[in-house]
Amino acid sequence: MDSRDWTQLGCVAYPSPIHPDYHAGPASTIAFDNQDELLWIGTQKGFAASFIGRELKRFTAFRIHPETDGPLRQFLFVDKGVIFLGSRSVYMAARSGVPIWSIRHESMQDLRAMSFTSKGTSEILVAGWQNKMLVIDVNKGEVVKELPTQDQYSFLKMSRYICAATNKGTVNILDPITFTIKKQWQAHGAFINDLDTSNDFIVTCGGSHRQTHNTPAILDPYVKVFDLKNMSAMNPVPFAPLAAHVRMHPRMLTTAIVVNQAGQIHVTDLLNPSNSQVCYTQPQGVVLHFDVSRTGEGKALADNKHNTYIWGSPNKIQFTEIGIPPRLPDPPQPSLLPPDPDMLDDLPLSRIGLPYYREQLFSALPPDIISDVGAPPQQVDQNILSTLTKTEWGYIGPNKTGMQRNQYIDTRSTLKTCNTIRAPKFLSEKARESQTGSEDNAFATTETAMTTPNNDHWSLRPEAPPEYRICEIKYSKFGVDDFDFGFFNNTQYPGLENNITNSYANSLLQVMHYTPLLRNMALQHAATACLADPCLLCELGYVFDMLQKGEGPSCHATNMLRALNHTSNASVSGVLEDIAKDKNPSTLVKNLTMFLFDKISQDYKGTPPISTELERTLFKLNQPPNPHDLVKRLLETDARYQIKCMHCQHVSPRTATTFVNKLCYPAAKPNMRGMKSQRITFSQVLKAGLENEAVNKGYCTKCQRYQNLDQRKIIFNIPAVLALCTEITTAEHRKLWSTPGWLPEEIGIIVDQGHVYCYEGDDLKLHLNRGIHNITVYSLVGTVVSVETKSPQKSHLVATVNVGRAEPESKDQDRWHLFNDFSVRSISKVEALTFNAAWKMPVVVMFQVKAANHRFNMDWKTRLDTSVLFRDNNPHALKTYELLDRETEIPGSETVIAIDTEFIRLKEREIHIDEDGKSKTIRPISHAIARASVVRGQGSREGVAFIDDYIHIQETIVDYLTEWSGITPTDLDPINSQRNLVSPKTAYKKLWVLVNLGCKFLGHGLSQDFRVINIQVPRNQVIDTSIIFMKPPSQRKISLAFLAWYLLKEDIQQNTHDSIEDAQTALKLYRKYEEFMANGSFHDVLEALYKKGKTLNFKPPRISTGAAKDAGFGAVHRVGTPPVPAPGTTEGTFEISSSTTTTTTTTTTTTTTTTTGGALSATGGVGSASASSSMPSTPVRKPIGLGGPFTVAGIVKPSPATSLDNFGAVAAGTGITTAAGTMGGGYGGYGTDGAYWGGPNDMAPTSMMGGSAFVPAKLPPGPPEARGFIPYRPQVLAAEREAAAATATASNDNGSSPAVGEKPVDEELEEQKKWQKLEQEVSASRAAVGSGYSCIPAAQISPPPPFVAREEFDDDELRRQQEELFAPELFTLDFEQDRLEAAPGCDEEGSPVFQELTSPAIEVDDDSNYLVVIEEMSSAVKQLSSPVVKEVASSSVSSSSSPAAVVGGEEEEKQKDEDSSFSTVEKGASSSSFAEGQREQEEEEDSSSSAAAAAAVDGDGGEQQKQRDQSSTPAVAP
User: Fold this and answer.
1) What pLDDT does residue 709 have?
2) Which pLDDT score is estimated for 398?
3) Which residues of 877-896 are buried (b: 16+ CB within 10 A; e: fewer)?
4) Radius of gyration of the chain from Cα atoms?
5) For 1052, what's the count of Cα atoms within 13 Å in the CB-facing half-sphere?
6) Helices 1278-1293 & 1478-1498, crossing angle to 10 degrees?
7) Given this model, what pLDDT does residue 1123 score?
């Protein structure tokens, strides 16, 4: 390439002096087109122009983006057109200027470069000085991917990799497919000024700091080179004149063209730098841009004097390979107007063009007076057309439209109703469709309502566009959680849901939230110890904090709007839409603005804020101000009315403090002939509203009569937050607001000697430049806009907010967004500040002092008042929780807490039924939190609740949901409740404090809890077990009850829910999860969990089945959470004592009961005989499986002095204990309701092995009042056996022989001693389990007494009921892990290991209806001294000799065979003589058993005990 014949071939001045962008600066970028013979030039304000060939003839010129977006950055060329890059948009147009697509995206903040990707010209990558890169599909014109990046890029060039130059002098080499960084290369020390690539090389020009970083960086005297093939840097190419620009030659792969700022061009070979050619150009200024054509023959330079030069060889130069010039437009046609004006009458008007007018013509009718004429024809459904028969004159067929013949159809209204955003599919539908894998469904899952990229002209439409209309929430069977809010909002700013009462306030809340001073006031107050209920300033703080933390597309302000209902004077202030006289949304929001500002000023004065650092800095105060002074500076317009009588000139002052000012419009003056009408500005309207000067009729105290009074307001101070009501009432007011640009973004206010002066636009800039007056500049934050629509649609409110005012950085001031309830979208400043007289008018305008923009005070988080967590609001309430310790239990970011809540229903679902019978949900069911329980999740007190609040609901409760919540009306009654009843504010404050302390919330299905609580918890603070134990492809979450049943072997939520129990269960599940993750078995467990769940339909099987379930005992009767011990007392205990040894545990007691002779000793805590655990325990539950902790009731036999009532829910409820180890052998006990809970040896066999499951005493079917039974109480038979032995001894002394089948007395006594010794061993082993636990072998418990029915039962009916209730049931294993392995002894953890038993051998006594089951006991069973009972399904029998468990019912007839006998494994064998009189004895047993029980507990072993022994039945295990 010979540069010696290069010469300047053309020059063009662009922007030219007459161009509107001339004063903005020189060209911002230049580039040669690779398709046509064109050179493209971009300007500093968004214009692009193209020039043809070496002569640079003008071809096209058009605007790419608004001038506020800054300069045009870069061009890329494709076959269809040109892609233009601006700072905030990407635009594609044909070379003729016809637009193809335009993209404006919220992530486009400061774009600088773009390049093609591995997909060629069908996809581009754009980046800039921002933290995101975007991938754009060129064919579709849409953003397909967003990529986070840590670097800020200035240049992007594509070769074999994407080479990206950062603003720090480095070059990142990106993979063109994944866009990940393959290599980083430090090219220059400070910056990169230009970059280009070829297939193998990267060349750069840039600058570095010569001495220190404090000195300005200057250009480097060399070109840096990088080898892409070897991924290594090469030797730099020296360039003494300081390289400014560089390009690789498109045809000569190792040749680079380097240019300095003075226009000196060097052509250098990278492999041989000494061989170079030089060409000197003579630009008029500094060279700013340089480019080389695709052929390498044309060189373009642009300087800072607005000149662009073309250099090359005059004999051979073309820009492209083919060199075909673009098709020029047709030349203008000669004028068709006749030279003689008189001939115009014969010329068609269509041949005469119209001039361009810069002002609106009078002939342009306003949209509010335009009416529709005619109506479009009715559209016939294609499905109906297919059923019709074609005739000569049309189609004929049956009428399947559902309408009458010739019925009128308003087709225009039908078309208008379509002018709304279509409802999205439900999330459940999208989930189902995504699993099908079809392309259409996959596209449906990514649908969005953001379909209009250019929104500058929405407000100019004659009717409200869909983006401004009411957005309705649709409800599926899954409720509001199934609605896709993300369809309406793909920004980072949450919207507010509108399905609650008073949701018209959403727009005002959004405007206030993005006003930094108001947000700071609310948060600084909410962080104090304020517990006033209601406190609207606290509620505002909670809403603002929720919107700040919002990670989803929407939130809801339910608590705030409910508090509004209970605020004093709210009903008379016209802010409650249900009872307001004027239900117009504009009137409601104006009243609410004044009401809220008044209330929050009172609340702010009542409690000093946490910190005033922001206010001190803003107002330059030396001392911390008091709340009253701050309210005056922030919210109050400090003024005084001066009222002057027009008759006597008497002046009377009056204080006039206002929080919200109303605009006042000057009266319209009639236009004089030949005079131009005076333009009314917003500043004039604002000044008139602040001063509020008017003449009204009033009473003069001096004249003693009504006179004309001149009222004028003297202003002393304008607040930092200026809230204005627009007061638009006339068509003239609407015309003012609909004037483009009438509402300014900034205003300046001067207060001088009681007068107010307002400025805007150029006047404001002039005063600021002068600096003479102390002028305060206010910035527009947002507006509440009324969208007025025609019937049948309702008018509503939206908000246009500049969220940039509330962002930490001030780089991007204009970030306007439209908040239409939960629909949020980015809009332009022009759209935000344009109003329409027909349907869009502002109601409230919010200004804030400009100095407060981007200012925050986060001291409230570090100085948060936490006293509410350590305060006991109801010291006399029933204590089911223990407060946190101020010294040792301070919540923090590493604290894990388990939470669960219970709800009640406030409102039923509101349903609208159409004329066709279809129902539509208007508002869903409204719930409120009724109980909140928080449990410690770590430490020595793990599992102990420290919050258990019952919430006092002031609204009308329609359903307590007791079956699911356990909440009763008494619990929430402030007069009768024994619970820890608190206000909603107190309960919410505790949870809000824990959230902001950073605690991690653990629970099951917490999203619904948080929704009803109305709190936003960041995702990194949530541990949800429903998500942890969810298998991702299935999209199914498993219930807490099923997880507890499968993983913890616990049966929970049988009749109702208990929040403490559920929270503790979730905590246990999380510990299980940690255990599974530690040993690497989590995925296997999850697979097994879902496999088991599918077989059971994910519903845990309940233990009680069969006849017991039919009789109404299929679930545990639920009671409240038992209280914790009072401070200073200890837990009660129950222990067993024998006839030789008595063990007594001394505690703080008021009642002590002792029995001797094998009875039991009971010591209870304060108040009653009870046994309690070391922590608050949950109500009685039936543990499942073998091994692991479970719940069992202690065994107590009440004495006459201690009635059954003392063992009710209050006393016996604390007798529940959590024991470690495995229960077997069928031990029973009293439950929290005072009724006995028996084991398998007490009663019929259970559905679990080893007696580890406890079932209630089985009773006749029917309600309790019809059964007339006495709850089954355990009977201690030690004294009974002694009485039997004494009877046998007396018989021997009298010479009588023992009855047939009766054991000798010596054998009876020996066996009794053996079992007493075994009983002591069992008692000692159980005592090690923990205090409060006691047990008694089933051998010492008699069978239940005969039923005492109020109605007469014949023998057959009674026998049938007993056989049904006590019939054995089949046993089936629930899981594989429940099978018992043959490993006698104990495992590594010390828990007994059981041996799986074979099928039992059964023997039936022919003369008795007792079923005898003979079983071989393993050594492990003997360790617990408990026989294992296996259930059988038939009465087929066999026999084997070993200790056996006897299962049987009631004997029907007397024993016929005196030689027959039955054996028992229980302690001692009863004489067969007792069986002979069994039928007569059963009638007396009910009364005798009660007397014997009293005697046994009182320790009286006299005649009563003997009499009971003689009348009792044999001790058998059912």
Assistant:
1) 84
2) 82
3) bbbbbbebeeeebebeeebb
4) 45
5) 25
6) 120
7) 62
End-to-end CA gap in the chain: 110
pLDDT at 451: 46
**490, 449 contact by CB (below 8 A):** no
Q: Tell me how far apart the alpha carbons of residues 1215 and 1198 are, in angstroms, rounded to a whole number.
A: 13
Which DSSP letter does residue 476 get?
B
Token output for 679:
């333009």
CB contact at 8 A, 1122 and 1177: yes
3-state secondary structure 436-457: HCCHHHHHHCCCCCCCCCCCCC
CB 41 within 8 A of CB 48: yes
- Per-residue confidence (pLDDT) for residue 1213, from 0 to 100: 34
Question: Measuring CA to CA, which residue among 716, 615, 735 is closest to residue 668?
Answer: 735
Selection from 494, 505, 485 nearest residue 560 by Cα: 505
Residue 27 near residue 50 (C-beta atoms within 8 A): no
* Cβ neighbours of residue 102 closer than 8 Å, sequence gap 6 or more: 89, 90, 91, 92, 141, 453, 454
What is the amino acid identity at position 1430? K
Distance CA 651, CA 1082 (A): 85
pLDDT for the residue numbered 965: 87
* pLDDT score recorded for residue 1513: 35
How far is Cα 1059 from Cα 207, in angstroms, rounded to an integer? 66
Task: Report how far residue 502's alpha carbon sits from residue 1466's, in angstroms, rounded to the nearest whole number.
Answer: 71
Spatial CB neighbours of 986, under 8 Å, sequence gap ≥ 6: 531, 533, 868, 873, 949
Q: What are phi and psi of 664, to 5 degrees?
A: -130, 125
Q: Concatenated DSSP letters for 485-532?
A: GGGGB-SSS-EE--SSTTGGGHHHHHHHHTSHHHHHHHHHHHTSS---
DSSP assignments along 1187-1218, one per residue: SS-EEEEPP----TTS-GGGGSTTTGGGGEEE
Contact 1311, 1278 (CB under 8 A): no
Cα distances (angstroms) measured from residue 1214 to each of 205, 945, 1062, 1121, 1171: 82, 16, 19, 9, 6
Task: Sheet containing 111-117: give its strands across.
Answer: 111-117, 120-128, 132-137, 142-148
Cβ atoms 606, 521 nearer than 8 A: no
Question: What are the b/e assignments for 509-533, b being 16+ CB within 10 Å?
Answer: bbbbbbbbbbbbbbbbbbbbebbeb
Give the separation between CA 1176 and CA 1156, rounded to whole angstroms: 32
Question: Which H or E run contains 832?
Answer: helix 829-832
Place of tokens 């929050």: 600
Residues in the chain, how many?
A: 1518
Low-confidence spans in the chain with pLDDT less than 50 = 415, 417-418, 438-446, 450-453, 674, 1104-1119, 1127-1280, 1295-1303, 1326-1354, 1365-1518
The pairing of strands 896-907 and 1000-1003 is parallel
List, in order, residues 6 or more apart from 949 with CB less than 8 Å away.
931, 932, 933, 980, 981, 982, 986, 987, 990
- Residue 616 Rama label (left phi>0; alpha psi -120 to 50; beta): alpha
